User: What shape does this take?
Amino acid sequence: MTYEVLKTAIEKSGRPYDLARITRAYKFAEERHDGQFRRSGEPYIEHPIHVALMLLELGLDDDCICAALLHDVVEDTETSLDEVRSQFGSEVSELVDGVTKLGKIHFSSLEEEQAENLRKMLLAMSKDIRVMLIKLCDRMHNMRTMDSMPPQRQRDKSLETMEVYAPIAHRLGMEAIREELEDLALKYLDPDAYNEISRLLVDMEKKNGDFIQTVTAEIREKLEQNGIEKAEIQSRVKSIYGIYRKIYMQDRSIEEIYDIYAIRILVDTIAECYNVLGAVHDLYHPIPKRFKDYISTPKSNMYQSLHTTVIAKNATPFEIQIRTFEMHHAAEYGIAAHWKYKAGLSGKDSMDERLEWVRQLLESQKESGDALDILSSIKSDLVPEEVFVFTPKGDVIDLPAGATVIDFAYAIHSAVGNRMVGAKVNGRIVPINYQVNSSEVIEVLTTNSKDKGPSRDWLNIAQTSEAKNKIRSWFKKERKEENIAEGKQQFERELRREQIQIPPDQMESFMNELVRRQKVNNIDELYAEIGYGGLPMSRIMPKIREMYDKLKKPAAPVFQEVKISRAKAVDGVIIEGLDSCLVKFSRCCNPLPGDEIVGFVTRGHGVSIHRKDCRNVAIAMESEEGRARLVRTEWDDSANEQFRSTIIIHCLDRTGLLADISGKLSSMHIPIYALNTDVSTDKRTTITTTIGVSRREHLDSVVEKLKKVKSVLDIQKVN
Ligand code: MN
Assistant: This one.
């Protein structure tokens, strides 16, 4: 195909493209690719022209068409990115750069979980969603022209297309592209099945003859009787891969697939959609339970339509899809519909509008649960909150933005972190506080020496709580003596800073008192806890300050000294002055270990425990009577008791789901006290489970980990 074809298409589009600039991009690309040929024999430049044409059809803007023409010059020729920038501006060069980077990531067979991470990563990396659109069109043209490639390459690329690019197209709502990518990939991945289904379709076509025509005519007449005259009626045959999935994965015969033929009815308004539905149900007998209203409840990728399956007069079941023209455009073009139907061609406004549109997409999807995937991936596009990096073996590890190589090492395994002496990023040694970026390959350098362990500074460098906790627990276990010395030092430093000077003769009793109130066995244990970082000085300073104030004016024992008995902890809390009493955890704030708490003496129902920041505590503080009922309460840390917490996990139903969730919990050593599964008709599963956790942060981290299990859509914590 020559540039003339593209040029004509641009002129025919009726949109104000800058043809001179696009022509300049074409000439530049043609010159750089001069002498290069595709495997099929045609000049290389044909490929970028095809890609540009597809983007034109999607309605994309000037910058995007130029970038499509130039998308391979940096990768495949001597051209530098700077040159592209100076010739065509930074928007174009950034698009080309994005596409080039995506192209550098290669992978063949992936485990499912890895594929999921990779999809997220690719989306996150294309900061500008146009990068992904160019990449999808690039892949589409490569798939269409795959015949001349060697068989191994055909399979590799097809697998990648099936596992990564088709799902991305689906998420972006671009169904036409997704279906074609899937069909092309299937052709190389399972050629026998592909050919068989193609044959079956031809046979059915012969057998059913003018079925579609008859049905279309019947529907048109019925709609006209009902006063709906402007409806457009289209017919479609299900995609080969769509049929393949039903036959092979759901184990059905082709006769059992009701939606091989579908009739699509397009109308102007939503009200008309429902009128049409009524009319066709009047005309044909609907199959029960096959009606789906995606207008009132759109799919996660914003797809909207009414679907119903009816039985034709010759007893053939077929599907009818009813939607407005606008919904139809959105379904065909997905995220690209924005450019085609809404945005202008260039200028700052369109960029803001574009982001605004993505934001709206996010907003509207918050309500429907299964949108979380696309949500987080597009969100990281706007607010980069996750980075995706590789191990040398090619596993993808996701970390929060700002994570360092230390976090990476501990994310792999605590043994790797503890033995780390340095790290290489993309083959180069980096400092230990290096912050990792998406797509970097990270290698942790370790030593076998047993003496080596993490350094205390790492606690300040590490960003993830996972790494921090693992570092702390190493110190706790391995460096008892050091911890005591470090803790003592910190303790004394803090007292000096706060100008607390305890008279030497009272030192011993003071420390004994503190030991008792902290509920540890001896002073060394207290120092050790401070030393390894488990007990920050800031947490015990108020106590010290209070004891010190009392020490300074011992004359007025306003407050009767209360011994908090360790042995008498009730349900994991110690209540000042009360050795044994009925303890109730309040429902209003659901306190968990780790929260600051206070007790409230109720009338005849023992003590109810609230979080200090609970609204009801604030209310109690307002009256004298209320204040009098508050009693000091602490968690009994020594018990390290498990608390039961109930969570509701919303998932898509699949085999092995329950095993994966309970496996994940048991890998975190979380006890399961109750578990209840509820499968609804729409393939959703709700799992309600009661688990044991030690602290609120613990529960949060468990929830985060569970969210990563495949098919989990959302998790609710029940208060
Ligand atoms: Mn290309």
